[in-house]
Amino acid sequence: MKTDIVCDDEYEAQKLMSLIFIKEDKETYISGILNIIKNEIIISLKDKSAHSILLKDEENVEKFADFIQSVFDQEHDLVSTKMNKSTIEIIKE
Could you report the per-residue pLDDT of 31-59, keeping only the tens digit for each? Predict the structure, then answer.
């Protein structure tokens, strides 16, 4: 399954890409979503830190949260990410 997430700008897209970071064993550093405030999503990492990412709009926040939830539930694994300007393509299996 694939989705495209549009961030507020290229900086936010780079930040999200670096936080998703897929290792060889298909793991992500993101461990959960702490809060959603309009177009801002606050995520928790496995090192217990929290980070804020601004997406283009509330629709992209909802799309990302729905897409990533099955990864948190260990139903799917992330297999690749690709960035094109402020858009990130995320693929899971």
Answer: 999 999 999 999 999 899 999 999 999 99
pTM across the whole model: 0.90
Among candidate residues 54, 52, 29, the one with its CA nearest the CA of residue 39: 54
**CA gap 63, 65 in Å, rounded:** 6
How far apart CA 68 and CA 2 sit, in angstroms, is 11
